[in-house]
Design a protein that fits this description.
single chain; mainly alpha; 3-stranded antiparallel beta sheet; 4 helices
Amino acid sequence: MNNRCPFSLRFVLPGLLALIAGQAIAQKLPPPAKTVFKCEVGGRIIYTDSPCPGAEKIEVEPTRGVDGISGKKRVGRDVQREQHRELMADALKPLTGLNAKQLEVRQRRQQLDFEAQQECMRLDRQIPALELEERTAKASAQAELFALRKRFRGLGC
């Protein structure tokens, strides 16, 4: 008797296993980042979803389907889910007082343990304050540097 798989099973089984593995991996991946950091590393500018010292924070909004090529709006399931969440958040806003992004953050944080939730709330207060301090310090450093360069040039150094 032949120990080989039937023709159709030989081709379907690897695809099925890849699909199952892909779904398992996708469920463990973090949500797509909507915050990107512009960093200078070794004299080169890179964009990453991980913060780095002196990074410039950039908020990005992903596209929502392709409609420029054919003129027809094509929306994937992930965008449909996001639009549904936004509609639900708008409907619940009178009860919760939260917009879609705030509701998404709250739902994500509910998955965390209590200590992590408390730390997230502390970081919510600390990060904006330090970002403001960084911008202020950067602006004052730039103003001081400008004054020094102006004086340097004025003296003819």
